[in-house]
TrEMBL record:
Keywords: ATP-binding, DNA-binding, Homeobox, Kinase, Nucleotide-binding, Serine/threonine-protein kinase, Transferase. Belongs to the protein kinase superfamily. Pfam families: Pkinase. The lineage of its organism: Eukaryota, Metazoa, Chordata, Craniata, Vertebrata. This is Homeodomain-interacting protein kinase 2-like. GO terms for cellular component: cytoplasm; PML body. Coiled coil: none annotated. ATP binds at K53. PROSITE patterns: PROTEIN_KINASE_ATP (PS00107), PROTEIN_KINASE_DOM (PS50011), PROTEIN_KINASE_ST (PS00108). GO terms for molecular function: ATP binding; DNA binding; protein serine/threonine kinase activity; protein tyrosine kinase activity; SMAD binding; transcription coactivator activity; transcription corepressor activity.
Amino acid sequence: MGLQRRKHREREPNYKLIYTLNGYSLVNPLGTGAFGKVHKCVSVETKQTVALKSVKRWTGEKEVAMLEKLRTLDKDTANLIKFNRHFEFAGFLTLEFEMLDMDLHQFVKCFSRPLQLCEVQVIVQQMLVALSALKSVRVVHTDIKPDNIMLINHEQLPFKVKLIDFGLAHSTSDMSIGSKHQATLYRAPEVLLGLPLHEGVDMWSLGCVAAFLYLGKHLYPSRCEHERVRDTVQLHGLPGEHLLNSGVYTKQYFKKDEEFPSSSWRINETCRCPKGLPKRRTHGPYQR
């Protein structure tokens, strides 16, 4: 592929696409994340507006492999972002996606109001279709949150959305007991406790997203995993005894009376987690 560029750094993909890159012209940058950058571009040949995501090779190869696994799905019917192609440049992978509007976190922030129940229902229904499609090919997204649900074109198609960012997606068979997944604010109890994992973890995250959209705030505004478990117990009650007995991480959050080991579990009063969630990343759509 012929590439014309002005400059780039070898260690980080922080060059700016202010030139023609393999037949693309820059419109403007969309966001920056831990793994790369995203730019809104126009194909010189087709005049089509697309999003180019440049990522580190090891991250990009994993995401491309997962996106290729989803090729069999109809992206419009399944409400999943369309992945067109990828190419390599300067040791990094560039992924081409269809251009969408804004993500739901940006939307709520922009309009400074929670969504109405009917609006939330429309979005959740579309995401249920998306999760059903992923389940049909045995894929777990593991990163369902407002940032990764994007409006297609809110002016022309109000509240029509698609699921994006498959950089952290896994095959269901690869979801091992005790493995850590999901952002803390959207993390399912089975992940926190270290129980068997499957597609259901995405359903929990979607429920948290629905609550955020309707309330305008997080359902579990926890600073760490211990507070996350405590908040869940306060809202839903203790998990079943058989679940707590099986959890790899149960003893990090719960304890039994030493004098009565057969008694029920109760939550630890002392938090062992380092306080504070990581600062919210500054990024745009498509970028994690």
